[in-house]
Amino acid sequence: MRPSTLLLALAAVGCASAPAPSTQAPAPQPAGAVAAPAGAPAAAAPIPALVAGATSRPNADPFPSTYAPFPSRPTVIRNVSIFTGAGPLIRNGAILIQDGKVAAVGATVNAPANAVVVDGQGKYVTPGLIDTHSHLGVYPAPGTAAHNDGNEATRPVTAHVWAEHSVWPQDPQFPRDLAGGTTTIQVLPGSANLIGGRSVVLKVVPSRSVQGMKFPGAPYGLKMACGENPKRVYANSGPSTRMANVAGYRAAWIGADEYRRRWDKWLAKPEGDAPGRDLNNETLAEVLRGNILVHNHCYQADEMMQMIDIAKEFGYKIRSFHHGVEAYKIADVLAREGISASIWSDWGGFKMEALDGVKANVGLTHVAGARAIVHSDDASYSQRLNQEAAKSLAAARAAGLTISDEDAIRWITVNPAWALGIDRLTGSLEVGKNADLVLWSGNPLSVYSRAEKVWIDGAMLYDRSDATQRWRTDFELGYVPNAGGIR
Amino acid sequence: MRATTFLRLAALLAVTARLAGAQTVAITGGTVHPVSGPKIENGTVLIRDGKIVAVGANVAIPADAQRIDASGKWVTPGFINSATTLGLNEAGGPQFSGGYNDVSANGTNGIAASFEAWRGINPVNTYIIPARQEGVTSVAVAGGNGMISGRIGVIDLVDATTVAELFRSGPVAMAGDYGNPGNGSTGARAEYWAKWRTLFDDVKAYAARRAAYEQGNSRDLAAPRSELEALIPVVNGQMPLALNVDRASDIIAALAFAREYSLKLWITSGAEAWMVAKEIAAAKVPVFTGAMNNIPQDFGALGQRQENAAMLRAAGVTVVLVGNGPGDEASFNVRNIRQEAGNAVAFGLPWDEALRAITLAPAEVLGIGGEVGSLAVGRDANVVVWSGDPFEFGSVAEHVFVRGRTFTSKSRQQMLVERYLTLPPGYRRP
Q1: Residue A6: its chain B contacts at CB < 8 A?
Q2: In chain B, fewer beta carbons within 10 Å around the N or the C end?
Q3: The complex's ipTM?
Q4: What predicted TM-score, i.e. pTM, was given to this entire model?
Q5: Are B126 and A357 a contacting pair at CB < 8 A?
Q6: What are the extents of the domains in chain B?
Q7: What Rg value do the Cα atoms of chain A yield, rounded?
């Protein structure tokens, strides 16, 4: 009988400075890894050696990923049904993972003699689940004011802040996410602001630093927010209305476009002093160049339509609308515009802009041809994205829609991978892709199924049967009982 | 003209519903889970005048009975969600500059013992029908924050225009908080608990010397008259005290407090209850908990885990499954109690126990075990026919009886979905 934590969370409204010297070894990246968003212009030509910290250049990476895959052994999982995320369910099939990649998948596979063999009798494999909307690390547990780092609610446009600088890698919610089969998450700033800052895509792995979790090759995202949250947070200083929200986005993009032009001109012909740097415009300019993907918190259909026009006015693309409780009302438009919808299975009603939430939202959006994604925005739901997808699937079928189980799995795997610009690397079990996968105790669309083993880049990072190897954050030591069954 | 048609339709539906209530209904051929007894294959549940009149494998079916063929289907009691604010809030309320929120009383110094939240229920709240459509037939409704947040009532999810039509039972318990020293203007746990003792001592003093109090011949007491009055049945051990208390050591403190004052205690959150399961079992205190929360969300609940229900049950504690996660199971998603039950099974609770924990167990704890919560002769006919295992997402509640009636009213969510299954003509571009 606790007060709704949902409401409490929402009350809080909860979604390069020092370029490395060019001689430094690049962060580990799978070959050909950088997944530029579809239609994005190619990155600008390399800039000649410049004074560190002095330039605002495309694809600057001052906080490079230091993630490297964990040790792995060639592993073959046999006698399993495989939702590949790419094609029809393979019944009683097998999958071989080797050197961190999917090496073979099909009815049968040839495995090297030294491969670890997992007998998956009666069980299921899916790609590692992907959550496009997480606040792990920036709103960690325990929920203390000291760690309340998700919303820079001091002014309405804060594109200068980066979510990764708030991520606490010792958030005990990370290992619980992994134990739920979630291997990749996008951590976003909250939704207090019109433009909340940069997101970061993380692998759900133990690390002493956020850099050690950063998904190599994943583009950054930009968090934008429509509607009630910004105007409520800034009721006194403005924006206090939706029309001022829109004016605020436009003013920001006007400034950013000026900045981008000034810098691109100088970068093309670096003579004289470089223009002054501005962290806010630096991020926005990267959006305009197509190097950062826009993730737009927006509930109402009418507001999403306006955000689409704003994007067109300034020449950027919206990669995904988040929450989108009314996505189903404009699913045809989302399909036409190539915008994905990151939505809840069954949240709604908790404020005016959420009033028209329906359980068939995901299904209706899907059948209209738009990329549907089941997201969480919640540390608990993020641990059971499979259940959320199953609820959405059931509601869609109850509404008379025809949707396959395979498609429902895509809502939590390859579709979110696309939204994050990493679908060439992960999100489906196809040869050459990262070996991010989950062995489930049964059909993942059943309420009774649990993740038994989870691999990231071929390394088994969670094994339900082996409590001694379980990832426990520093925080948990001495605080959270090691109950063995902890997820 | 459209409005007239709508009204006619509504009137017709109302008549149909009344007729359905008057009929005898035989649900035949299904796997019947009475909860009060072992499951019955190919069983029949016979309903007449809102009551269950026969349950079994060999039930004589009256000729005039409407038959529902439940072959291959599962028949269960209607589910009870025992931790809700259903009907009290919509569209966020003032907190979000929206709809209405009638959950929390202001009270006096955190004490709102005389508050009966259910009296403020909006019977046409749009979350009620979706809950019923997923097999929830009764809910307990409690108030919000405070040291004592008010009295708990139970309603049935029938179509209604007044609270009286929904009402089943109340007050069934007094709700409060024993673990959060931030409530009630206190700074520390021990101060908070001292405040509880002072209050209960004053309730006793008031009850013993009412006349003197009325004459103004009384020392200052810890709460206003209305609140002292409301707490008398609690202090007398007649009305259960339902406490939110999470930390293991706080639970032990609450058990000691209840023992010393001879209170009838429920634990209505109990994140770390599994650590002191033996003590809770010995005290015969029921625990309301869920199975979808493993987040160490605060320093008073670091041991929160999904096996809580299973471990408590194994220790002999009466478990009532409620939502304890973030999914708004108290209001918009009251319907998700079946997901909670499914997760409880996944985390170790036997299936039959999970069903009991959302049917007969809450009914008995709430004091209505003789009315609902099982498929037994004489009980009110709150019955659901499921297409399959009710905890599985793909299963549908095909027939939901509340007090022997079924309902055809559509939820607002259904109306929206139907409107957008195809783009409404009025919304097409010219």
Answers
A1: 326-328
A2: C
A3: 0.93
A4: 0.92
A5: no
A6: 1-78+373-408, 79-371
A7: 22
